[in-house]
C-alpha cells in the first residue's frame, strides 16, 4: 500500500470531485501527498522526507512497530463488541486507572475525542440535573453538533451562541486582559469564570459543567497561570457543576512533567471527568472517558444502556495498551521534558534575536511561538506566520499555526522528536526569519511560492494581505503587484 | 492475544469495578467470555464454538484474512489524517460511489455510524435552514446527544421528546395500525408522516429531515411496505426537508437483492443523504456519509472546516476497500439472498408447526421472527423469547431479541453464514420450541438456568415474570416458587 498508485495531480483531482471541500488539505495551494511515515518523519510520493512537528496523534511515532504488531496480533484472533467479556478492555481500564487520581475510576471507551466529549456532556447533565456549560473563549471540543455548540472557535462562524453556553475569557497571560505583569492572573481569570457563572445564574440558568482543554491548544497553545483551574473548579462546583478536563490534545505524557496536563495544577487537583482521544491510539480510532463512581452511578440510574458499537473492542484496547507500553519502555515522558526544554531554550534564544517572536511558551513537547507585528500592541503577525510555515514546508519541515490570529506556531510533534530534530528546526527557523528580515530591509515582497495556475485560499490570503507600515525590526508583507 | 489471561470470574469482577454498568453484557447473569472469532463462529475461553447469528459488524466474517492483512499492510506504512493527499481515501470514495445512485457523489469519512448520523443532521439543517426532524417510532440512530434526541427508543426512557422532534408510526404491517389486510399500507403509513409534518407546520415548525433506517432494525426487523419510502420522500421534500437513509445496520449487500436496503424501494428512489457504519469496516471503526453536491455545497458555503481526526485515514480506508473486495470476490450479496431465502423458508415451516411464531419476515440475511402469546392480539411473547434465546445459548447459538416488546428474534449474522448453519439453527429452534411446548403441557415452569448465586436483571426478569393463562398451543412462564 506504500506504492504510489496515482500521480499527485490525479489524486487531487479525484479528491476535489469526491470529497467535500469542507474537509481541508494542509497547504491547499500545493498540498503534500504523503505515502509513508516512520517515527517523526513523513515521506511524500517522491521519497522526500518531511520532519513532522505537528502530529500529536502519531504520539509514539508514525507506524511504531510495537503498536502495529499489537493491532495485527489482535486483529488476527478477535475484534468484536464489548457485550462479551474480554481481558483487553479490563486490562486497559486498569492500566489507565494507574495513571489517574484514584477517584477517576470508571471508564467508558469510544472511537473519538468528540464522542468522549459528547458523553461528558451527557454525564454532566445527568449527574447535575443542569443543562448549561461554561467554556473558554476560542475553545474547540469536537466536530459533533453538541460540541460545535460549546466551541466558540466554531460557533462564532455558524449559528452563534446558544443560550445554555457561557463563554469565559481565555486565561492567556500574553494577550488576554491579565498579563505577565498582573500580580495574580490566576485569581483574576478565575474570577471572570465566577462572574460568568453569576451572570448565568441571574438569568435563571444552571451550570452542568465547565469544559476546558488542560492546556488550550486551538486557542494558541495557552499555558494557564498556576492555580487557575483549582479556583475555577471551586467556582464551578459551588454552582453545582462538574469540571471536565479535555486531555485529547495534551494527555499521555506530552507535557513531560506529568502524564496528564491537568496534573500541572498540582496533586490535589482532580477533575470530575477526563476525556482522551487523538494520541491514545497512535492513529487508531480510540477514545476514553474517565470519571468518578458518583457521576457514573447517576448515569446508570437512568436504566438506559450505553452501547458504542466499536468502543472498547479488543483491537482498540490492544492498541491503547501498546501505546502505554511504548511510552513506558522508551521513557517518552522524560524524553518530552528533555527535548521540550531544549527546544524552548533554543526558541527563546531566537526570540532575543528576532523581534517577530513575541512569546515562547510551553511545557514538554507542547510549545507555542507567538509571532507579532509590533511589541507594544502584540498585533498578531498572521501573514508572516503563514509565509514562515510555507517556507518551512519548502525546507521539508511540517509546522502549523493556530490561535484566533493564526499567528502562533504550534509544536506538538510525535514524542520521539529528538534533540537533533529540535536543533534542525530552530536553525531553519533562524535562517528563514533572517532572510525575511533581509527581504523586508531591502523592501522585497514576501510571497508564498505556489505552483503555476493554482488559486485558492492560501494564495489569496498571501496575495491579498493588506500592506502594513514598515517598522523598526518588524516584518511587512506587501501586496503583490 | 488469543491466550486467556485471566479466569472468567476475575475478568467479570474487574469489569464490574472499572466499567460502567450502563455498558451492558449479553446474558448478564452468565456472560460469555469470547477470546477468538473466525468466520461466523466465536470461541470462548474453554474453546467452545458458538454460532454467531447476530454480529452484523463482522460483516464478511470474524477476522477475515483479507481484511486483517489490508489493515496490517497499511498500518506498517502510514496512518495519518486526511489533510494530506492519499490514494486510499479517494479510491474508497470512488468505489463506494460505484455502488450508489449517481446523485450521491460526495463522501465524508468518520469513525462511527453515530458520527455519520450527527453529521447528517448538521448537513440537513444547514441545507434546509430548518431545525426539525421526523423519525419513526422506536427508532434508534446512535448514542450521541443529538441522536438520543431523534431516537424514540432512547428518549422515551430519558428526558422525553424535544419540541423539534416529531414521531411517525412505525410502518409495521404485522403490529401497527395498518396490517397485511389493509389495501394500501404504504399509502396509509406515508399519510401518517404527512399528517405529522402538517401538525408540526401548524405549530410553526420547519422540517429539516426525515431519518429512518432503510429497514428499521431495533424496532423489530421491520420491512416497510413497498412504496412507503418514496411517498414519505415526496411529503418530506414538499415540506423542504431531506430524506436521510440510515444504512448502518442494513447496508453492504445484507438484504441480498441490492447492495443498499433503500434500493428495495426501486431504481428511482434516491435519498438525499445515506449514512453507513457497523459492517463497513468489519469491526474497524469506520463510517461514511454520502450526499449530493447540492447538500455538500450548502455546508461548504458556511466556510467552516469539517475535520475528523481519524476519519478517512489510510488504514480505515484500506479496511473499507478490503471489505468491498471480499464482498465481491466471495459473492456474499448473492450468498445472502440464497441463504436468507433458505432460512426464511425453513423458519416459515416452523411457523406452521409452532403457534408461538406469529410472523417471519425479512430479506437476505436480515430476518425477524416475531414471537406471540396469542394469535388474535399478537401479544409479544417477551419472556418466552428471553427463555428461547437463553436455551439457544446453552446450545452454543448466539441470537438476540429486539423490538419494543423484546419478542422479535433478530437474524443478522456475518454474511458467510451458511446453509448448514441455517439448517442447524432451525433444527435447534424446533427442538427447543417443541420442548417448551411439552413443558407447558405438563405444567412445568420454564426457567432460565443461571449459575448459582447470580443475581441481576436477566434473573429477575425470568423469576419475576407474571403468570399468564395457559391457552391452547401457547406458552406460559410460571412464577418461580
From TrEMBL, chains A, B:
The cofactor named in the record is:
pyridoxal 5'-phosphate
On the tree of life, the source organism's domain of life is Eukaryota
> What UniProt keywords are attached to this protein's entry?
Lyase, Pyridoxal phosphate
Entry keyword Ribosomal protein: no
Name any one Pfam family assigned in the record. Aminotran_3
Give the residue ranges for region: Disordered: 447-473
Quote the SUPFAM superfamilies the UniProt record gives.
PLP-dependent transferases
The entry lists its GO molecular-function terms as:
identical protein binding; lyase activity; pyridoxal phosphate binding; transaminase activity
UniProt KW Lyase keyword: yes
**Oligomeric and partner information:** Homotetramer.
Name the family the entry cites.
Belongs to the class-III pyridoxal-phosphate-dependent aminotransferase family.
PANTHER family in the cross-refs: 5-PHOSPHOHYDROXY-L-LYSINE PHOSPHO-LYASE, PTHR45688
Spell out the protein name for this chain: 5-phosphohydroxy-L-lysine phospho-lyase
Gene (UniProt)? Phykpl
Amino acid at each position: 500500500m506504500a506504492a504510489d498508485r496515482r500521480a499527485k495531480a490525479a489524486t487531487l483531482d479525484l479528491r476535489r470531485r469526491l470529497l467535500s471541500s469542507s474537509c481541508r488539505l494542509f497547504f491547499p495551494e500545493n498540498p503534500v501527498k504523503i505515502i509513508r511515515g516512520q517515527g517523526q518523519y513523513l515521506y511524500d510520493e517522491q521519497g522526500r522526507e518531511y520532519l513532522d512537528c505537528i502530529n500529536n496523534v502519531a504520539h509514539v511515532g508514525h507506524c511504531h512497530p510495537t503498536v502495529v504488531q499489537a493491532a495485527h496480533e489482535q486483529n488476527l484472533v478477535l475484534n468484536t463488541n464489548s457485550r462479551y467479556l474480554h481481558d483487553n478492555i479490563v486490562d486497559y481500564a486498569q492500566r489507565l486507572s494507574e495513571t489517574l487520581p484514584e477517584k477517576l475510576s470508571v471508564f467508558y471507551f469510544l472511537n473519538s475525542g468528540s464522542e468522549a466529549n459528547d458523553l461528558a456532556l451527557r454525564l454532566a447533565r445527568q449527574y447535575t440535573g443542569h443543562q448549561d456549560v461554561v467554556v473558554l473563549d476560542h475553545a474547540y471540543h469536537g466536530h459533533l453538533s453538541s460540541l460545535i455548540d460549546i466551541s466558540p472557535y466554531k460557533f462564532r462562524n455558524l449559528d452563534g451562541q446558544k443560550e445554555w453556553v457561557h463563554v469565559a475569557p481565555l486565561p492567556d497571560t500574553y494577550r488576554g486582559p491579565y498579563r505577565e505583569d498582573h500580580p495574580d492572573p490566576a485569581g483574576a481569570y478565575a474570577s471572570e469564570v465566577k462572574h460568568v457563572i453569576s451572570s448565568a445564574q441571574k438569568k435563571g440558568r444552571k451550570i452542568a459543567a465547565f469544559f476546558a482543554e488542560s492546556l488550550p491548544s486551538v486557542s494558541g497553545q495557552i499555558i494557564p497561570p498556576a492555580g487557575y483551574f483549582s479556583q475555577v473548579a471551586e467556582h464551578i462546583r459551588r454552582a453545582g457543576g462538574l469540571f471536565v478536563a479535555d486531555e485529547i490534545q495534551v494527555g499521555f505524557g506530552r507535557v513531560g512533567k506529568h502524564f496528564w496536563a491537568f496534573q500541572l495544577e498540582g496533586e490535589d487537583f482532580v477533575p470530575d471527568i477526563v476525556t482522551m482521544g487523538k494520541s491514545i491510539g497512535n492513529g487508531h480510532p480510540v477514545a476514553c472517558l474517565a470519571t468518578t463512581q458518583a457521576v457514573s452511578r447517576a448515569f446508570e440510574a437512568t436504566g438506559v444502556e450505553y452501547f458504542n458499537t466499536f468502543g472498547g473492542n479488543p483491537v482498540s484496547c490492544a492498541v491503547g495498551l501498546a501505546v502505554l507500553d511504548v511510552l513506558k519502555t522508551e521513557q517518552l515522558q522524560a524524553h518530552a521534558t528533555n527535548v521540550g526544554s531544549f527546544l524552548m531554550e533554543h526558541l527563546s534564544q531566537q526570540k532575543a534575536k528576532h523581534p517577530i517572536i513575541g512569546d515562547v511558551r510551553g511545557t514538554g513537547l507542547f510549545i507555542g511561538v507567538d509571532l507579532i507585528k509590533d511589541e507594544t500592541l502584540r498585533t498578531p503577525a498572521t501573514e508572516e506566520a503563514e509565509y514562515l510555515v510555507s517556507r518551512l514546508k519548502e525546507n521539508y519541515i511540517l509546522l502549523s499555526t493556530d490561535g484566533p490570529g493564526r499567528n502562533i506556531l504550534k509544536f506538538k510533534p510525535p514524542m520521539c522528536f529528538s534533540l537533533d530534530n529540535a536543533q534542525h528546526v530552530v536553525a531553519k527557523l533562524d535562517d528563514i526569519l533572517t532572510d525575511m528580515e533581509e527581504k523586508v530591509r531591502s523592501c522585497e515582497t514576501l510571497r508564498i511560492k505556489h505552483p503555476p495556475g493554482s488559486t485558492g485560499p492560501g494564495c489569496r490570503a498571501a496575495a491579498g494581505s493588506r500592506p502594513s507600515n514598515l517598522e523598526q525590526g518588524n516584518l511587512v508583507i506587501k501586496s503583490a503587484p
